[in-house]
Each structure stands twice: as structure tokens, then as C-alpha cells.
């Protein structure tokens, strides 16, 4: 996890759910984003804080710095919360590139216990069906007109607990709304960042899930039917 998610409400609805007191620089779009099958390599709107204002920027999902390219390492799409703060690849992003990815849920594939080659996709979402926010870390230059080749973001993941463990052993890091707002603050200490990530997550019992059609496996498919239970 996380390899596919949905982001289909309006940016105004996500911002309202986050409930930040900071000024948002940009229009409050009322047109649904209508993305039901977001995959790696695509640009995704990422919430980030610069000084005392909030911004939404399209950033590519996947991070591959120049040294990783030279070593022929593929772009990474996730970072483990257990190691991101100290790893060579992710420490600079953890310290200076924190953001939030707005979402309505994510997909996981559960292996058939009798046949590992067969996998059933599930859609996982908050029981209230309210928007959620994935903790993300990124490297990008918002002041440049054209994006650089090594720009991108990854979603921070944590170990799955309780019922979620039945679907997959990892899950995106979803923090409480209060912690999510603080996560964006570039001025908080590294110790506080780690505390937020490890002690302020939304508990598994607040999530629900159901099996969905295998059409979600093709990233070209994008329709409301992808999130409907089968």
C-alpha cells in the first residue's frame, strides 16, 4: 500500500473537512475532481503550507531523485513511517516537504488463501464517508513554471491494525484532522512530526470496506462504479 486511491469530491469540500484557519491561496473549486482510480505516475493535487497560507499544487505521485535514476532504482510511491525520518532518500522530504493528499478512500487487493495469484480488490473508506487525508512527503518547486524531472511525492504508510490487517498489512497514514493540520506546519520540530505520525492516527475501527469489481485493476478505468460494492 498504497497503490491506488479515489479523489472525487470538490476541492472546496476537502478544505471544509480539513477545517484549517489558514488562508487558502487559490479558488475554492466547486467542480468535482471525479477521479475514482488514481495511479502512480499521475499528477495529484497536494495540500501544502507555505508561510502562513495553504496551497494546492499538482505534483507527480512518485519520487526518483537523480542518484536513484543513476542507480536504476524505480520511482518510489510510498514511504514507511517507521524509517522515513532517517532514510537517505526520504529524510529531506520528511523535514521540508510535508503535505496532505485529499482522498475519499483507497484500494487494496486481498490474496485468495487458496490461490495467491487470485486477488480481490477492496475499497476502504471512513465509516462516515467524509474525506480523509493521507500524510505525504514531497520534493517540488512551486515557484517554477515548469516541473523538474526529480519532483514528486510519496504517501507515508503505517502497519495495518485490527480488521484492516485482514485486507493488507500496510495502510496509508491517516491522522486526525487536528494532527493533519499541524503536519503541514513547516515550523514544528522533527520530534513533534514523528509524534504526530505515530500517535495521532485514525483508529482502524473508524474505517469500513467492501469488495469492488476487478475493473479497478486497469488504471484507464474511471467511473463511480469502481467504488460500488459487489
Low-confidence stretches: none
Task: Determine Rg (CA atoms, Å).
Answer: 17 Å
Beta-strand proportion: 25-35%
Give the biggest beta sheet. 8 strands, mixed
Give the ordered list of helices and strands: EHEEEEHEHEEEEEEHHE
The structure class reads alpha+beta
What overall geometry do the principal axes of the alpha carbons give?
globular
Say how many strands there are.
13
Q: Total helix count?
A: 5
Average residue-wise pLDDT = 92
User: Helix proportion of residues, in percent?
Assistant: 10-25%
The rounded distance between the terminal residues' Cα atoms is 22 Å
Structure notes:
- The structure is a single chain.
- Helix content is 16%, strand content 34%.
- The strands form two sheets. Strands 2, 4, 5, 6, 7, 10, 11 and 12 form an eight-stranded mixed β-sheet that branches. It has a five-stranded antiparallel β-sheet with strand order 3-1-8-9-13, with no helix packed on it.
- The protein is of the alpha+beta class and 230 residues long.
- The protein is built from five helices and 13 strands.
Amino acid at each position: 500500500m498504497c497503490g491506488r486511491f479515489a479523489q472525487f469530491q470538490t476541492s472546496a469540500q476537502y478544505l471544509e473537512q480539513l477545517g484549517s484557519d489558514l488562508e487558502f491561496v487559490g479558488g475554492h473549486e466547486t467542480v468535482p475532481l471525479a477521479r475514482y482510480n488514481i495511479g502512480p505516475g499521475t499528477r495529484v493535487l497536494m495540500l501544502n503550507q507555505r508561510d502562513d497560507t495553504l496551497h494546492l499544487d499538482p505534483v507527480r505521485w512518485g519520487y526518483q531523485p537523480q542518484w536513484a535514476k543513476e542507480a536504476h532504482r524505480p520511482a518510489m510511491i510510498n514511504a514507511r513511517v517507521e524509517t522515513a525520518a532517517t532514510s537517505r532518500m526520504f529524510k529531506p522530504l520528511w523535514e521540508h516537504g510535508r503535505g496532505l493528499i485529499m482522498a475519499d478512500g483507497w484500494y487494496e487487493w486481498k490474496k485468495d488463501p487458496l490461490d495467491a495469484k487470485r486477488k480481490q480488490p477492496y475499497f476502504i473508506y471512513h465509516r462516515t464517508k467524509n474525506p480523509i487525508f493521507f500524510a505525504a512527503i514531497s520534493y517540488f518547486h512551486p515557484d517554477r513554471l515548469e516541473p523538474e524531472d526529480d519532483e514528486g511525492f510519496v504517501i507515508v504508510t503505517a502497519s495495518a491494525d485490527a480488521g484492516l490487517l485482514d485486507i493488507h498489512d500496510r495502510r496509508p497514514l491517516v491522522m486526525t484532522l487536528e494532527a493533519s493540520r499541524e503536519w503541514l506546519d513547516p515550523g514544528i520540530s522533527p520530534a513533534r512530526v514523528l509524534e504526530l505520525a505515530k500517535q495521532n492516527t485514525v483508529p482502524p475501527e473508524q474505517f469500513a470496506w467492501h469488495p469492488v469489481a476487478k475493473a479497478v485493476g486497469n488504471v484507464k478505468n474511471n467511473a463511480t462504479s469502481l467504488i460500488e460494492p459487489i
